[in-house]
Amino acid sequence: MEDFFSVCCQEIESAYLELGHRKSWRFLYTSARTLSPSSKLWFIGLNPGGDAYEPPSSSVEMGNAFLVESWNGCKPGSSPLQIQVQKLFHLVAQNSPQPIEVASLMNKSLFANLVPFRSKNWGALERKSESIQFSVSLWKKIFTHIEPKVIITMSNITNRHLRDIAAVSGYCKDNDQVQPIGWGKTSYSIERLANTDKKLDIVRLPHLSTFKIFSRTRCKPAMQTMIDEIGDLLNAKT
């Protein structure tokens, strides 16, 4: 898979230059080895945020960026978004039939964004349509190499495109559910897809930098229900 990882990075760099992006790109927020069939759990955001140029980042070999990097002037792993994601994976780890540390689970899962090109915010992303088109083609290729069991997405956009990519890859809807999250009208969803003898859950969460649902008491019952649902599939032997 090392060659495939290099091919992905080369394609991102080529598209970055061709589309005229100027604030760099990020691919994996984990090590290159997580681009592997052994990575059954994915966490996929929308695109890297930041208003200033940073050097391109193909992977994070020292660990998971949500644990080891300093964001927005915070100590490593202590920004609001990082803390929420850690709490999410703590629940997943607790639900595992075999004891597993949160850091170990996060380090062996695949973390990335739908679109690898950095922008101040989603609205500020240049050449958006072409950037999405490239990103969808990239993730279609990744799906041909890796078959995850659970994909946790942040944002409706990421969720919609990954569902479409799964459909193109042969997955059909098995069932789906939309549930209140315990925060006003905000909801989460789980769509279970099937492809012959394989199943895939695609989870949609609101953006955890805004909705700190894993620190909110009213959200705990809904989040535990969600963890139980995806745990059934994530922990299945097949």
What this model shows, in words?
The protein is of the alpha/beta class and 238 residues long. It has a single domain (2-234), classed as Uracil-DNA Glycosylase, subunit E (3-Layer(aba) Sandwich), CATH 3.40.470. Helices cover 38% and strands 18% of the residues. It has 7 helices and 6 strands. The chain has helices spanning 2-19, 65-68, 80-94, 102-108, 128-145, 156-168, 220-234; strands spanning 41-45, 110-113, 150-154, 172-183, 186-195, 198-205. It has a 6-stranded mixed beta sheet with strand order 2-1-3-6-5-4, with helices on both faces. α1 (2-19) packs antiparallel against α5 and α5 packs across α6. The mean pLDDT is 95.
Secondary structure: elements and pairs:
Layout: H1 2-19, E1 41-45, H2 65-68, H3 80-94, H4 102-108, E2 110-113, H5 128-145, E3 150-154, H6 156-168, E4 172-183, E5 186-195, E6 198-205, H7 220-234
Helix pairs in contact: 1-5, 3-4, 5-6
Top keywords for this entry?
single chain, 238 residues, alpha/beta, Uracil-DNA Glycosylase, subunit E, 6-stranded mixed sheet
How many separate domains make up the residues? 1
Give the ordered list of helices and strands: HEHHHEHEHEEEH
Q: Which class best fits the helix and strand makeup?
A: alpha/beta
Shape: globular
- What is the CATH first-level class name? Alpha Beta
What is the residue-mean pLDDT, rounded to a whole number?
95
Oligomer: single chain
CATH topology: Uracil-DNA Glycosylase, subunit E
Q: Which architecture per CATH? A: 3-Layer(aba) Sandwich
Major sheet: arrangement of strands: 2-1-3-6-5-4
